[in-house]
Write a structure and sequence with these properties.
This protein has helices at about 5-15, 15-25, 25-50, 50-55, 105-110, 150-160, 180-195, 205-210, and strands spanning about 70-75, 90-95, 115-125, 135-145, 165-175, 220-225, 235-240. The chain has about 240 residues and is an alpha/beta fold. A 7-stranded mixed sheet has the order 3-2-1-4-5-7-6. The termini are far apart.
């Protein structure tokens, strides 16, 4: 369909300053500094609109506590710490994010959540979690992260490595809409420019397929339409997968 490339070019033309900065090698370092401020604001709005969905998702975290009854949790792409309010008291949390500029927002969230124990913050991508030992985590959390990683397959391999047997991955991700829908039509149009503006975020990933073939022993996954004002990010998947 010729209409999609044409409309993509129109969006790119409107975003020409971003592409020029990218060509000059200035956009990526600028984006890395600005993105945490934007996400801190957006995360507050997102949590308000999906509060019940997140509350329900994380309601059974305690069931995956290890033999010591302490829950050891690794969050990939922690960002500003938007999920902390949903974690049970006494939970031991290890935070990771590839962008070190999130740390100041993360420290603020940590100070606001005295019911949690924070072990450390690692500047690391989801594809390479080598500082985290094998079979050392009861739970891994990944929300609004798999849309922007380089390789979902590699991230899920790392998740399975660090999870103990019987541990679980919790996820909440925006995904591609149904291919026959207008939503998918607009996702394709916005996607090339959105990846620049959203620090690599992709609107058209079918993340549920990667989860289905990753090798988890059990997968609880639902497709939902998030109550968000911008339609290209409304299609979501939510659930957890057990090693």
């Amino acid at each position: 369909m010729m209409l999609i490339p044409l409309l993509q070019r129109c969006i790119q033309l409107l975003s020409l300053p971003v592409y020029l900065l990218s060509y000059l090698g200035l956009w990526d370092p600028l984006c890395k500094k600005i993105f945490p401020y934007v996400m801190a604001k957006c995360s507050t709005i997102y949590n308000r609109k999906l509060f019940q969905q997140k509350k329900d998702l994380f309601s059974n975290l305690g069931e995956f506590a290890g033999p010591s009854r302490e829950l050891r949790l690794l969050e990939i792409g922690t960002g500003s710490g938007a999920n902390f309010q949903f974690y049970p008291p006494g939970c031991w949390v290890t935070c990771t994010d590839p962008n070190p500029n999130f740390e100041r927002f993360l420290l603020k969230s940590i100070s606001d959540r005295p019911h949690l124990h924070f072990e450390r913050f690692l500047v690391a991508s989801g594809e390479d979690l080598h500082p985290v030992a094998d079979n050392s985590m009861d739970v891994v959390v990944c929300t609004l992260v798999l849309c922007s990683v380089r390789s979902i397959e590699q991230v899920l391999r790392e998740v399975l490595r660090v999870l103990r047997l019987g541990g679980a991955l919790y996820f909440l991700e925006h995904v591609a809409a149904d291919h026959s829908s207008w939503g998918y039509f607009w996702q394709q149009i916005y996607n090339p420019t959105w990846r620049y503006l959203g620090d690599g975020c992709c609107l058209t990933r079918e993340t549920w397929k990667d989860l289905e073939k990753a090798g988890f022993s059990e997968l609880k996954l639902r497709h939902i339409h998030a109550p968000l004002s911008w339609s290209p990010t409304r299609p979501h998947i939510i659930g957890y997968a057990v090693k």
